[in-house]
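Subject: for your reference before the review

Hello V.,

The reviewers asked for a structural picture of the protein, and I figured it would be easier to keep everything in one thread rather than splitting it across files. Below is the amino acid sequence we used in the manuscript, unchanged from the supplementary table.
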Amino acid sequence: MKTRACVLHAQEDVRIETLEVGDVGPQQVLVRIGAGGICGSDIHYYWEGGIGTIRVSEPIVMGHEVAGTVEAVGSKVTRVRPGDRVGVNPSRPCGKCKFCQQGLQQHCLEMQYFGSAMRKPHTHGGFRDLLVAEDFQCELVGDQVSIGEAACAEPFSVGLHAVNQAGSLLGKRVLVTGAGPIGALLIGAVRLAGAQEIVAVDLSEAPLKAATAMGATCVINARQEPDRLLADYSADKGYFDVVFECTGVGAVLRQAFPVIAPRGTIVQVGVSGPTEIPINALVGKEIKLVGTHRFHQEYAVAARLIREQRIDVRPVISSTIPMERIAEAFSVVRDRSSQMKVILSFD
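And here is what came back from the structure prediction:
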């Protein structure tokens, strides 16, 4: 059996190729992929050939935000059946290392993550018509949402994990810096967690519009009003209980310190290079600075919340493009003034 796949060979060189699907093992599932979301890491791989020191050095099937319909199951699979629509968790921890044994699977020493160039050989991803996945990777998404919405379970999981890192948000005042796909979906998670107030900051109107639709109570265009955040929220040692920093820009992180209240928590979501941290503010206001990395059990929660329509991810989806036009999709997604999540269709 063969499948079409989106294979990245080098920077700005992605090709539609035909590959062997492989056998379906006893505890594996054959999924016909219906949709795949283009993530920030995909964008970096395509336009820059990698992320920092992680480089694409051999052909790799791209993509890790995917959903589809079960075609066949192995002899020992009971959790899904042919015809079920599922989100596919791209995370495949080993289950045996010391971190997996502690329930910290997102830190697995032998992690195989769809579409990742971190290891050699690279771990192939889900931008293909047919995919063999482990049964534990498949989460039911039902028939009430589109398959494109189901593909958003992965980035929504990132937001859910970040919220879990922050602790209780019930009645809290929250700032989200960077309202791209991850930030906007995170805002949805913050709203579900019971935050009293959610302020979103970005440089473009499309992300701010999505942020409002996802539950932000106030949005600030930092390009148009560069001084508003500091002017409105820095009095009396700061205003926010929790800040989620989603840009990965050091200057933006530093802006969080004047506006966060004493004993507040900053959750760093976006990744970046080295940056200066105002240590005196960190110490003097007893601020907690917390990292957040991927997710584990949150993927099942994300799929359920989307399936039950307790979260509406549609405001984040800005374009749907056939997989054959993947190079065009990478050009489209660069326009942050109008684009959020670009979905590839595999129908």
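For the response letter, the relevant points are probably these. The chain is about 25% helix and 30% strand. The CA atoms of residues 23 and 261 lie 55 Å apart.

Happy to draft the paragraph if you're swamped.

O.
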